[in-house]
Amino acid sequence: MEKLLVFLHTSNLNFVPSLYNAPSILTLFFLFIGCQLKSQTPTFEQDQEILSKVKDLHILKTENALVAVSGRLQCRVFTSSSKGLKGKSYGWFNREAILDGSFKRRFSSLGGEDRMWFGPQYGKYNVFFERGSTFEDEHMQISPDLDTLSFKVIAKNDKMIESSGRMRIKNYQDYVFDIDLHRRVAILEKERIEQNLEISIQENVYHVGFETETEMTNIGTNEWSRETGLISIWILSCIIPTDSTVAIIPTRGQIESVTNYFTPLDDSRMQIKDGVVHYKADANYLNKIGILPENTVPIFGSYSPELNLLTIVEFTFEDSPLYMNSQKTKQTDPYGGDVINIFNDGTTATAGPFGPFYELESSSSAKELKKGEKIIHVSRTYHFEGDAQSLDEIALATLGIRLSDRVKF
């Protein structure tokens, strides 16, 4: 069995040496289980047992739906289920870091079904490299506050949890952002899901939905400006893959290509058909794609026929010219970045795999904030598990395409 690299971020090929201490037999067992997830998805109950090591783990509940969150770990959603404790656990998180306790020292290795980061990752205004360093992944660093700062839980009940913390984030130009972060996670009732997506959920379709609201406020003395660099809220969602999983992204305008990262891409892994991007998300080829704002519709998703699972993500979107550019290659416009990204796990000559997982990602626009001004980004994740015909109807209503018409890579 190949040793799993420690996960800092889907496109961060760095690692933390301290996590490579000799693992226990139990840790090795769960590492082996992690390698087999595509053939046997864990139950929510099994993952909850692992997550019991997180002291403040909080379970949101409604009917058969469950969502596991940690308020102190920056209001991170670990995973969810639509069928209660015995149902499939949909999110990927770093089980090794939980089992060996290393998550208590560093949060960035945890993954999870919804977590908060900041963009951009590369470029002249990035927040992941020290000034003057090259953009090779061995030089990538996670801002200490993002990596280790515990949030204060403000409120919680069976339906929601919210927490907050203050961070200092430094960019490649040595500009320091003093920010107040507030995160709220809420589980969504069936009626709210139907209202949000304008659908009717049949009785034979199991469902879970949750909403995260991330609020970032400038609490520094200076106004943020384009000249010294801006930052955006970046929401990332690690999902358990299968060999036939396809990400489906409806678009607008004339789209002929996507932003491509890290590795070559051809029609065996990505195709654009009638304005819809189809992307193979099987965690077998390390790659990432992006959708520019002029092509963005603020809803996208994925489908796994093996799991009879349709996942939908919708998010708040501003038709703004300021989206942070995270391309590693030379940039002509640092504010000409993507809104939607899909990351696919895999192996290259020097790195991977990290999960296995694929990621559904969205970013807020960037803004020149005065002191006290804020950016708010809302993301909603829905999972529907049921028969193909029922899921077909939901996909047509939300993504504008029948699942039976998806590209089958």
UniProtKB/TrEMBL annotation:
Pfam families: DUF6786. It comes from the Bacteria. InterPro entries: DUF6786 (IPR046713). This is DUF4380 domain-containing protein.
